[in-house]
Amino acid sequence: MEAEARSRLLLEPLGRPFDAFSLDEKLKLNLKRIGLKRTTIFQDFCLPHILAEDEELLVEAPRGSGKATAYLLGSLQYLLRHEGRALILTPQEKRARSLAQEAETLAEDTGISTLFFGGSKEELSFQMKELEKGARLIISTPRWLTKIFKWRLLDPSSIRLLVVDEPEAMLKELSIVEGLRPQKIMVFLNQVSYEAVSWAYRLLQRPFELFWGRRPRRPGELRFRLYHVSQKEKFALLLELLKEMGRRRVIIFTANELVAKALSGDLKRHGFLTLCLLPESQPRQRLELIRRFNSQRAAILVTTDESVPYLDLLKTRCLINYDLPATADEFLLRIGSLPSGAQVINLCDETGAFSLEEIEKALGEKMTVVWARPKREARRQTRASSTSPRRQGHWDSRSLSP
C-alpha cells in the first residue's frame, strides 16, 4: 500500500496538502501513515465538492488520477458526520476488493467498519456476519448487491451515500440502484459516453460536473484550415462554407453565449437545421440536444467553450471556430475529442489575430491558409473544379470530405 502511494505521488502532479481540507484528524493521520501528504491536482480540485454535504457529483476521470482515494475519503468523512451506511459499486470484483483494502487502511481508528462483499463461498459466511454486525462502508459489484438485497442482508433505506464507479462498464446491471434514495450520490466515469451520462441523470438532479484528463489530439491527426476574414464578412463566408460542405454534422464554436444565440438564429433564418447548446441548458435538455444532433445526417450545433466537456458525446468530423479562442489551451480543448482525420476550420478576424500566434505555437505547425474568394469567382471555379487541378491556397470543397 505504501509503495503504491509513493509511486502514485511520483506519477501525479501535486496539489495542496491534505491538511488544507476539512477532513477528520484521524483521516489525515492515516494519510500521513501511508505516505500521502499532498493531493493530486485532480483531488485538489474535486475534494471540496466530494466533501460538500449536499452536492451531487458527475465526474469523468481516468484511473491513476487519484479519484478512488478521493471518493473513499469523502465516503469516510460523510460516515463520520452521519448515521447510516455508504455503498460503493464498481464493475469488477478485483477492483472492489482493492478499494476495500484501501478503505480499511484509511478508516483505521475511526470506528468505521469497511467490507468487501463478494468472492468465494468461504468468504461469504464472514461477510454476511459483518453485514449483520453493521458494516458501514460496503464495497461490491451490482451482481453481489442483487444477492445482498435478495437475501435481505441489507435494508436499502439505510444507504445514505451512494458512489458508482465506472458505470459505463456495468450499465445493464445498474437498475438495482435506481430505487435507492440516498442523501448524496457521486458518479465517477472512467470514460464518458452518452449512455452512461444519460443513465447518471436518471439518478442525479443538478450535479457538479467535472470532466478531467481529456488529452487533445496530436495536430498531425487533424486537418486545419485558416481563413483571414473581417468581422463584417465572417458570417457571409460561413454561409458559403456550409453550403459547399453539403449535408454534414458540424459543430461551431463562438466566443460567448450572446454570439451563439445570435448566430444560431441567423443560420435558422437561412434554412439550416441548427441547435444551440449553452451552459444554461438543463442536464436533460442538454442530453436531448445531443441526441437530436447525433441522430441527424445534417445538423449544425452552435456552442461555447463551456460545452467542451460534452464533445465526447457528439458525433462529428468537422468543427468550425467561428471565433478563435483567447488562449491556446482553449483551442486544444475544443479539438481534443475529434476523431482522427477530422476537419478544423478557423475563421480569424481582427480579434482572433491576437491569439493566432500562440495557437499555432501550441500546435507546432502553421495552419494552411485558404483565401476566401468573391462569390462569383467561387461559382466559376467550382464549375471548373471537375476538370482542372486544385489550386494551392484556394478553397476546394473536396478537402472537407472525411
From TrEMBL:
Superkingdom in the source lineage: Bacteria
InterPro entries according to UniProt: DEAD/DEAH_box_helicase_dom, DEAD_box_RNA_helicase, Helicase_ATP-bd, Helicase_C-like, P-loop_NTPase
One Pfam family hit: DEAD
Keywords, sorted A to Z: ATP-binding, Helicase, Hydrolase, Nucleotide-binding
Record's compositionally biased regions (Basic and acidic residues): 393-402
GO molecular function: ATP binding; hydrolase activity; nucleic acid binding; RNA helicase activity
Chain residue ranges for the region called Disordered: 374-402
A cellular-component GO term for this protein: cytosol
Family assignment from sequence similarity: Belongs to the DEAD box helicase family.
Protein name as it appears in the record: DEAD/DEAH box helicase
Organism whose genome encodes this protein: Thermosulfuriphilus ammonigenes
